[in-house]
């Protein structure tokens, strides 16, 4: 790699007025600024979605509670689910992609900077449009005309007869806007990764993070298209008499389920594959070893993408599909665990024999490994049609899903924050606060979601507003709510760490972790142009080659 990328001075932006600064951020096409906008946007909605979750947990803390009305409760779980998937998880992962991918492949920006900006503002429009629904109509506790049909909006709940007014319209248009934004970002990522790699960076030398984001972007194009089509069909049903999902006029409510879950289950892998990417960059650095089985890691990600497109109907085993369909989706749902298990073994093999440094990013990655393994095991249980029939609408499924989303995706994202925050801001996050964040969040997570499996096994249905005492659920719901409160405390510590470290954190320098990918070769934060001279790479660890030319293990194909 060309050595002149090591000492690039940072470009200082003039202070200007607040209006000028705001105008610069709103009109920016710089991939780094857009990445930060995605992340800040997602963090705001993370707090909002967390508040909605706490409202639900307080309502369920004891039997016959009347903290909120049934309608408000329905609105809370609808808004919470939609927010966390579409306006927290997706923007967070796209934010890291925007910031890191061009830096890691030696490019100066994304392939289509204006499309990049347009995609972000479309996504932002979706979130703001959804929450504008709180201002419409009237409702207890100011919930206005917010949707109350669940984040899946099963037919016929979304029809005019069951959702009068505009609540479902807000939900539908919000998801359409954010979906188009996500598709635009996916196209941009694919074009950038395939066409803008620096000289010498063949696909076989590309870091795993861009590789896995390439797979994820391809899945977005395939999976989000049916969801957008279904949203348009729902609007036609509501206002033009289309009857796609109206069973009384020859339509099919089951058709909506298939459309939604053709998106909904690949979406889980769309979210988890970037989490795999974070681990694949963080674990080797803090194990002081190259990733074990690089080609196998890439192949496993591609296999997950292919197989995940054929597992959606395990969410709807109970609708009465044929035994052949049930058997097919049982087999595919279990098969997708094989390449996922390969990745877990590869990370463990990377750690084995390494000089592991238990810094905060690594702690979150280790937590991810343990929790994602449990999530996979309960997923295999639910993939078996007879078992799923018993627990399909119970809190067991809620626990499994949150084990994936929170125990897997959110833990890996926290690891990514602690790892790349120095690059984005030039400041280190506090290790002391980071470890408080990790341990409190870990304890709260397990109190909540480990316990949540058991009322599900005892028959507690999901989406329940209240319950009778003496059914064996009382103490467990109390523990679950206490665990959620501990997680909320951990999130507050995390936010305090982010804000405080930005102003008073230790200066990071260019390469605080002694890493080996290209983003660490430039200043922190990077200059507007990324690289003064486009780098030339000769291995998968170009920065390590430059720092340790005497190390024979640093050069490999």
Computed over alpha carbons, the radius of gyration is: 23 Å
How many domains comprise the coordinates? Answer: 1
CATH topology: Cytochrome C Oxidase, Chain A
Helix content estimate: 55-70%
Q: Which strand-content bin applies to the residues?
A: under 5%
Termini Cα gap = 15 Å
Low-pLDDT residue intervals, each spanning 5 or more residues:
1-14, 138-142
- The CATH superfamily turns out to be Cytochrome c oxidase-like, subunit I domain
- What is the makeup of the main sheet? none
The second-level CATH architecture is Up-down Bundle
Secondary-structure-derived class:
mainly alpha
Oligomer state equals single chain
What is the mean pLDDT? 92
| Apparent shape | globular
- List the total number of helices: 16
Give a written overview of the molecule.
The protein is mainly α and 557 residues long. It has one domain: Cytochrome c oxidase-like, subunit I domain (Cytochrome C Oxidase, Chain A), CATH 1.20.210. The protein has 16 helices and no strands.
């Amino acid at each position: 790699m060309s050595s002149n990328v090591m000492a690039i001075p940072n470009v200082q932006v003039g202070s200007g007025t607040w209006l000028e600064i705001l105008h610069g951020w709103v009109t920016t096409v710089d991939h780094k600024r857009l990445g930060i906008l995605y992340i800040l946007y997602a963090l705001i909605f993370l707090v909002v979605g967390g508040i909605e979750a706490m409202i639900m947990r307080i309502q369920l803390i004891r039997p016959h509670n009347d903290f909120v009305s049934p309608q408000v409760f329905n609105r809370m779980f609808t808004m919470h689910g939609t927010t966390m998937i579409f306006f927290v998880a997706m923007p967070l992962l796209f934010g890291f992609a925007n910031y890191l991918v061009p830096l890691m492949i030696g490019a100066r920006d994304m392939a289509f900077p204006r499309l990049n900006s347009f995609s972000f503002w479309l996504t932002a429009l979706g979130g703001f449009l959804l929450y504008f629904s709180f201002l419409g109509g009237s409702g207890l506790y100011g919930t206005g005309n917010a949707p109350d049909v669940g984040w899946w909006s099963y037919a016929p709940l979304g029809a005019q007869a069951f959702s009068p007014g505009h609540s479902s319209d807000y939900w539908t248009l919000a998801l359409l806007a954010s979906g188009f934004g996500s598709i635009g970002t996916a196209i941009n990522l694919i074009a950038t990764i395939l066409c803008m790699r620096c000289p010498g960076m063949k696909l076989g030398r590309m870091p795993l993070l861009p590789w896995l984001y390439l797979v994820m972007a391809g899945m977005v194009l395939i999976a989000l298209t049916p969801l957008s089509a279904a949203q348009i069909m729902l609007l036609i049903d509501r206002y033009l008499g289309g009857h796609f999902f109206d069973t009384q006029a020859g339509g099919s409510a089951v058709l909506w389920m298939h459309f939604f879950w053709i998106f909904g289950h690949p979406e889980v892998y769309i979210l988890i594959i970037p989490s795999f990417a974070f681990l694949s960059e963080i674990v080797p650095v803090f194990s002081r070893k190259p990733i074990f089985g690089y080609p196998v890691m890439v192949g496993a990600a591609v296999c997950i993408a292919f197989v995940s497109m054929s597992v959606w109907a395990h969410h709807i085993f109970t609708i009465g599909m044929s035994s052949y369909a049930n058997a097919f989706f049982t087999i595919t749902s279990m098969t997708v665990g094989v390449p996922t298990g390969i990745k877990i073994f590869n990370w463990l093999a990377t750690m084995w024999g390494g000089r592991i440094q238990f810094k905060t990013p690594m702690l979150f990655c280790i937590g991810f490994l343990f929790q994602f393994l449990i999530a996979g095991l309960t997923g295999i249980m639910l993939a078996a049609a007879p078992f799923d029939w018993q627990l399909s609408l119970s809190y067991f499924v809620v626990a499994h899903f949150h084990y994936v989303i929170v125990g897997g995706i959110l833990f890996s994202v926290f690891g990514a924050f602690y790892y790349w925050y120095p690059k984005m801001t030039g400041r280190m996050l506090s290790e002391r606060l980071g470890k408080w964040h990790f341990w409190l969040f870990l304890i709260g997570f397990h109190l909540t979601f480990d316990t949540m499996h058991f009322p599900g096994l005892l028959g507690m249905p999901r989406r329940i507003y209240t319950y009778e005492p003496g059914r064996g659920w009382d103490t467990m719901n109390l523990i679950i709510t206490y665990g959620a409160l501990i997680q909320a405390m951990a999130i507050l510590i995390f936010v305090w760490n982010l804000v405080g470290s930005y102003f008073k954190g230790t200066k990071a320098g260019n390469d605080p972790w002694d890493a080996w990918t290209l983003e660490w070769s430039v200043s922190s934060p990077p200059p507007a142009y990324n690289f003064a001279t486009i780098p030339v790479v000769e291995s998968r660890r170009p920065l390590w080659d430059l720092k340790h030319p005497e190390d024979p293990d640093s050069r490999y194909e």
